[in-house]
Structures are given as C-alpha cells and as structure tokens.
Amino acid sequence: MSEDQKNERSIWHVYQGKLGAPLTLAVLVFVGCLLGILSRPENHLASLWLANATMAGFMLRVPASVSPLGWLLSTLAFLAADLLTGSGLFKAGILTVANLMGVAATYTVYKRLSKGAIGIRQPMSVLQLAIACACGAAASGLVGAVANPLLFDGGVLIGFIFWSVTEFANYIGILPVILSMPEPAARARRIVINSAAPIRWRGMLPVFGLFVSCMGAIVIGGPGAIAFPVPALLWCAVTYSVFVTALLTLMASAWMLISFSHSLPYDESLLISLRLGVFLIVPGPIMLSSVMQSNNKLLVTLKQMAARDGLTGVSNRLDFLDRAQEQLNAASSSVGVMMIDLDHFKEINDTHGHSAGDAVLIAVAGRIQRCLRSSDLLGRLGGEEFAILIPDRSAEELIAVAERIRHTVADSTVGLPNHRSIPVTMSIGLVVVENGNGLSIERLLIEADSALYRAKSAGRNRVVLSGAPEPVN
C-alpha cells in the first residue's frame, strides 16, 4: 500500500469514528447552513439549502454519525449558523426544528425503502430516493405551515407548499451526489465513465454542451428556459458515471435556480414553480445513467461468462484461440505453445465418477495457473485437454516451465468429493517458435498435439519438444 493510500485510509477512518463522525457531520451542517444563508432572497428561504440534504446523506453513508452526539452537535450547528447571521433565537429555533424533522424523515424512509443498501446502484434506487425526499419535504412543510404566518406573515397553506417544494428540490438535487460518491481511495484515482474509457477531449464534449445550454437558458430566458439543459444532461448520463452525472445535474440546476431567483421579481407562486420545475429535471439523467451503468456491468459479466470455461474458470476454447492469435501476431521474440492432456482421465471418471473428474480438472487448472505469469495464457480446449501460450521465453526456459507444471501436478494427490485422494499425471507437447508472425495458433496447436501424442506413446507423464513449423507465406 502506498503512502497516499495509507493517508486516505486513515482520514476515512477518522471521520467514521464514534467522535470524528459526529464532529464531521456538525461541521458539514454548519458550512452548509452558511452557504445556504448566502443564497437567501431577502426575508425568505434560501434558493439552495445544502445543510439538510448533506446531513441526511452523510448519516446514510457514515452510520457512526447517527448517534445522540451527532444529533446534538448538528442541532447546535443549525442554531449557531442562524444566530451568527443575525436571526433571533425564536426564528432560529423554528427553522432548526423544520430542518431536523425533514432530515429525520428522509433518513428513516430511505433507510427502510432501500433495506440498508445505500447508493444509486439501480434505477429503482432513484424512485426510492424520490419518495424519501418527498417525505422529508412534507415533514419540513408541516413546520413551515406553522412558521410561515409567524416569521414571514404568510398563509398556512402557502407555507406548507412553499417549504415542501423548496425542501424537495434541495433533497432531490443534493442527495444523489452524496449517495453515489465513490470511496475516497477510488475517488482520488479515477472518475469512472460508462464507456470504461479514459476521459479525453471528446469525453468533455457533454460538459461543454451543458455549459452552453445553461448559458443559453439564462440569456434567452422565458418559462421554457429551464428545459434547455435537458438534452445535454442526457448526453452526460450516457457518458459518465452516476456520481458525475448527479454532480453535473446539481451544478446546472443550482446555477439556473440561483440565476433565475435573483433576476425575477419575488413571488411565492413563481418561486414554487421555478424550484419544482428545475429540480424535477434531476431524476431523469440520474436514472438514465444508472440504467447505462447497470447495462454495461451486465455486458461485462456476459462477456466474461462467454469467454470462460464454466468448470475451471480459465479461458474456453474460442477465447483462448482469439487471444492466443492476438499475442502470436504481436510477439517479437520466441513463443511457446503447449498442449496438455491428463493421463488416464477416462479411468478416473469410470472409477470414481464424473464429480471426481470435475474435481481433478479444477485442481489441475489451479495448479497450472500458479506456475504461469500474468502475461501467459491458459485455456481449456475440451475434456481433459488444456493449452498454454507463453511469450518471451527461450526454448530452455519453456521446457523448464513445462517440467515445473508437470511436477506441480504429479507431486501431490488431488482430493475428491468422497474424501479420497488420487495421483494425477499429465503429458505435455511443446512447440517453440522464434517469431510468431505469419503463424496461426491452430497450426501451432497441431504441432504441439503431435508432440503430445509422442509423449503419450513414450509412456506418459513427460514433456516432448516438437520442431518449429515454417511460416506460411
């Protein structure tokens, strides 16, 4: 483990500790409150309130913060932020109660719906999150119904609606970023995009398109302007991971919300429509990104299943032939190809049963793999036959590798499902070529198989070297 990795791990453990987690939570809440207060239109709620969603998200991601100390420190953080920025104790108290009720409801509902699986790993997670956000928003709205007449001289119903919509917008915009955020070590090293390719200049085109669409929305204005970024956000969703998509969606939504809030005359109905419209855009790109990521993982799994032998886990015949030919074409020095056949394997099946034969094949494949480098290629061609391609080794080295494989298998018995053990030996045919260019893997396998036949004819449990074939023009 590198020094950077050790530092990241130690930092991660500190803020997950019994004391560190509540303290970190309180600091995040306090900073989120201050940033939210800066975005408040005069004498009303913030355009973007970070503290509540940050608190709920941190509690979901770091269970150690969900403690009496965490709740106490967070309550003090809410009160301190309001009092330090000029609010009276009565107003700060009501706002703090609304914040804490919303966080508690969001945390409890999402925890129950997700059954403890925290994150945006599948499209259904977005729906679960939206329900939790709506419940948290409604809880805050109940306090808002009481607080609006007392603090802002407004009506009860409009207070409930305005507070609920505002809180829903904050939760649905911020929580996906926190819940999909990678662990520190992974986040420090790479940003995963759905295509599994490194981000080059072409990979930044969706971000540029999003920037242009947001600027166009602000310049052109009008009721339809909030929909301008949607195509670019969908482009981001099919290009980037859920975390990056959620972060870009939040940034675009917050930018437009703050820009429009401060450029329009204050009107509660208008602000309700604006905030709800902007943040109802959020679930679509995140859900699409989740679908894309799930599909890509499924494709990778299917590809691996199609390339692997179902019993031993090594390459199957088709995968071995394809990859071996690629390595053969790229080889600039000597290459060795081995054909391996287990001796008297039919007798093992006939005497001990096919389950015993399967156990032997699994054990032998594992022993062979331990004798090879990561650059060497092992495949099961069928039955008890295995093939190996080893690049960049001399003939003497390849013979030594073949003998090591043979001894590794023969020197210890193989355990069977019936708790018995049996000895297993193998015969190996080896062909070595100085340059693989112009040769086909099928031809080399035929040469190696011929050497394997001579090894069996000579008494089995041995390695026989074949002469190198001539390239085909």
From TrEMBL:
Q: What is this protein called?
A: diguanylate cyclase
Main localization is membrane
* The keyword Zinc is annotated on this UniProt entry: no
Which UniProt keyword terms apply here? Membrane, Transmembrane, Transmembrane helix
* Top enzyme class: transferase
Where is the secretion signal located?
A: none
Q: Which cofactor does it need?
A: Mg(2+)
TM region positions: 20-38, 92-110, 130-151, 157-182, 203-226, 232-258, 270-288
Task: Write out the catalysed reaction.
Answer: 2 GTP = 3',3'-c-di-GMP + 2 diphosphate
In alphabetical order, the GO MF annotations are:
diguanylate cyclase activity
